[in-house]
Design brief:
It comes from Chitinophaga defluvii. The protein is mainly α. The chain has five helices and no strands. The chain is globular, with a radius of gyration of 16 Å. The protein has one domain.
Amino acid sequence: MAFFAGLLTFSLLFLLAGYLFNISYLLHFANDMRLAAATMFILIGVMHLLKPHKLTYMIEGLLPYAYALVILTGILEIIFGAGLLHTATQYYAAWALMVLLVLMFPANIYVAVKQLPAPGGLPASPWYTWSRLAFQPLYILWIWWSIRG
């Protein structure tokens, strides 16, 4: 949910900047959505790299090499997020992010089933960790719509 709040907030800020500074590119909401997704994935990727130990618990016992996988997913989130910023790569980057979200979904299921706290100090209550699962398809749709708009 926090990720979704970031997507919405950045999208609206980009749209507002488009109106305030008369930037035609930012007056198309699909462009704002794509920029917001790029921003959020790059930020989350950086967090994976800066504090991987805070995320390894999500896959320890589920997959081997948890620390390396957190680093790898952080690098991929940064690369694919940046790929959304370039016309020549945005389609491929969007598809790569959608696949990455599908591949990371089991970790979110694992967190909910094992009743682990949500990452980033977010609420640890079961309602929150289970509700996070509903947002993963929404992120995929968000990315899909941002490259189709």
